[in-house]
Amino acid sequence: MSELIKIAVDAMGGDNSPQKIIDGIIHNHKSNKGNFFKIFGNEIEIEKHIKGKLPTNYYEIFHTDEKVQSTDSPLEAAKKGKNTSMWLAIKSVKKKESDIIISAGNTGALLVISKLNLKMIENIDKPALSALWPNKKGMSVVLDLGANIECSSKNLLDFSIMGAALYKSLYPEKNTNVALLNIGSEELKGNETIKETYQLLNNKELNDFNFAGYIEGNELMDGKVNVIVSDGFTGNVALKTAEGTANFITSELKNAMTKNFIGKISSLLNIQNLNRFKKRLDPRLYNGAIFIGLASPVVKSHGGTDYIGFSNSLDVCHRIVKGNLIDKIKQNI
Amino acid sequence: MSELIKIAVDAMGGDNSPQKIIDGIIHNHKSNKGNFFKIFGNEIEIEKHIKGKLPTNYYEIFHTDEKVQSTDSPLEAAKKGKNTSMWLAIKSVKKKESDIIISAGNTGALLVISKLNLKMIENIDKPALSALWPNKKGMSVVLDLGANIECSSKNLLDFSIMGAALYKSLYPEKNTNVALLNIGSEELKGNETIKETYQLLNNKELNDFNFAGYIEGNELMDGKVNVIVSDGFTGNVALKTAEGTANFITSELKNAMTKNFIGKISSLLNIQNLNRFKKRLDPRLYNGAIFIGLASPVVKSHGGTDYIGFSNSLDVCHRIVKGNLIDKIKQNI
Predict the structure, then answer these.
(1) Burial zone of A205 (CB within 10 Å; 0-12 exposed, 13-18 middle, 19+ buried)
(2) Do B273 and A256 count as a contact with CB atoms less than 8 A apart?
(3) Is the pTM value of this prediction over 0.95?
(4) Which chain B positions have a beta carbon within 8 Å of A252's beta carbon?
(5) Which of A191, A237, A277 shows the shortest C-beta gap to B238?
(6) Is B253–A251 a contact, with Cβ atoms under 8 angstroms apart?
(7) Suppose B182 and one of A324, B73, B214, B298 were both cysteines; which one would form an S-S bond, judging by CB atoms 3.0 to 4.6 Å apart?
């Protein structure tokens, strides 16, 4: 039992909580017996969903009546103080009683309360928000997705090292190729900050990853590189544009395929293949964002995901801790 | 005949030129008798493709042996001087002998040679590169797509006015709704430049368009707004990310649909619907970018498009001139 990874879970964030959160924990436990869950929130509600479904030696409930609302500003959430489920879950990693913290709640509040409680990793100037993103060959890590609107070349260098460490923790058997998101592939393209970062990465002795130069937006998903680095403004626009494009295309496809009787019949015939397609693009597979740069990684599940999406995020938590993310960052910084 | 719109065509740019260019002109003429083509390039080659296929009172050839190569840097292209087909075509609008200029050649060279030859519209500080983009309800205009990496709030205000005028020229029957591309919809989000632009647009008396505030990347294609304004770095990343996502999804779909015999048969049954889907997303429909802010609009066709794509760009040229784009910009600036 001493080998279990201890995950601090804010049970009160996101839609349909705590039921979704608890169902996600139970679902996760079915395929992975390596986690111990420290669950923060309303004990009565949590007990109602968990009792008899998860062996009691795999979890502990920490009761609190207070929680951060999705409508709270980060400042309001921080002012609510130290008895919200979110704050207490973060406090648990601060006190080293848990290895990692996850919440499906208010993103701004989570970032601010994490920064208030957790120290930065030495020599990292700013933490970054990263996410998994599908590509033709598997998955990529993309960062920053909005935590830092303005970035220096030192920040982008830090993000490269942290992104590479995150990828290596999640996919230890793969080669890690890092690229900077730019508007052209030639060395002269882009703004001054990007060009400086290119030089910093080019001149740095890299052990754990390769630097692959620049990529453009249209290459984000072709799988040639698997860690993509950007300032938070550009990264956020890119991620959301990709989401919007995916929604647009699948809705156009649905319109076209069900336009007439033949279309409906043949789509029905092809249901297995269509389901395979849907599964490949299922947003629950890529659920969640990882806030890195602090003494402990902080995982943000999408508030609107279901228990399967939340369970996938718990899997990410497990792999991050098992992959020694924080040590990997420290070794490379 | 005096009513014909005069289009200066650089016949030597892009893949498979001048054949593709001339075939595009001939194709365009079939559905629209309102254009007169001033064609710049190698007369013998052009004659070979055009003779007997387009009535001689609809075109005139201006011979030159020289052309800009796709591999030329903008500086090299400019140094080649005044006898390239690209330069001469631009010169033709400068001398007011043509209403608009189109090229499928080297983008950087086209922008630089246009700026060298054509004056700015009064009170516009920088020209911008714009493009058409599909959305759930029709089309949007998006700018800037990479001509200006760093932008001030005055630049973004100019882009808003120019983009609105472009949309109104192309779609005179529609309402024009302008939004700024940002990383959140609240007034406080984004960098200083975007927040300043928001205030400028909010306080300005607008006649020809509505200001709809901020939109995020995932709303780019939902059709609530139809003019989307951004600095050139962010806009370029967004456009290319959308392209890359569309390619990724359609290739995943193709893989899934043809994985087995049933899939192939049912896709065959559904070929009409699949073709409708492909047609809706056909990049030839959105071919080309429009460089606006100079005394004449400059249209850049994609170098890799075919004659149908080029013909669609000629249609855009026609509608821009007929819609009095330049006057519309001057009235609003």
Answers:
(1) exposed
(2) yes
(3) no
(4) 277, 280-281
(5) A237
(6) no
(7) B214
For range A164-183, the mean pLDDT: 95
Q: How many angstroms separate the CA atoms of B90 and B78, rounded?
A: 12
C-alpha distances out from residue A154 to A190, A328, A333, Å: 16, 18, 11
Residue B333 confidence (pLDDT): 83
Contact yes or no for A269 and B266 at CB 8 A: yes
Asked if the C-beta of B273 comes within 8 angstroms of chain A's C-beta atoms, the answer is yes
Q: A319: burial class by Cβ within 10 Å (0-12, 13-18, 19+)?
A: middle
**Whether the predicted pLDDT of A225 surpasses 80:** yes
**Domains, chain A, with CATH or none:** 1-120+295-326 (3.40.718.10), 125-292 (3.40.718.10)
- Alpha carbon distance A86, A66 (integer Å): 9
Instruction: Tell me how far apart the terminal alpha carbons of chain B are, to the nearest angstrom.
Output: 33
CA pair distance B309, A32, nearest whole angstrom? 53
CB–CB of A169/A199 below 8 Å? no
Inform me whether the pLDDT recorded for B147 exceeds 60: yes
β partners of residue B38: B8, B60
Contacts of A211 (CB under 8 A, 6+ apart): A160, A178, A179, A201, A202, A204
Q: Is B301 within 8 Å of B283 (Cβ atoms)? A: no
d(C-alpha B265, C-alpha A133), whole Å = 32
Question: What confidence tier does B268 reach under pLDDT thresholds 50, 70, 90?
Answer: low
Give the Cα separation of A163 and B272 in Å (integer): 44
Decide if A149 and B246 are in contact by the 8 Å CB cutoff: no
- Tokens representing A241 are 């544009």
pLDDT digits (tens, 9 = 90+) for B93-130: 999 999 999 999 999 999 999 999 999 999 999 999 99
- ∠ Cα B243 B246 B247 (to 5°): 85
What ipTM was assigned to the predicted interfaces of this complex? 0.86
The beta strands (E) that lie in chain A are given as 5-10, 35-41, 59-63, 100-103, 128-135, 138-143, 177-181, 210-215, 227-229, 289-292, 298-300
SS3 B40: strand
Judge whether B144 and B137 are in contact, CB under 8 Å: no
Q: What is the DSSP string of A247-268?
A: HHHHHHHHHHHTSSHHHHHHHH
Task: Report the pLDDT value the prediction gives residue A253, as an integer from 0 to 100.
Answer: 77
- With b for 16 or more beta-carbon neighbours within 10 A and e for fewer, the A234-254 pattern comes to bbbbbbbbbbbbbebbeebbe
Two tokens, residue B120: 């700015």
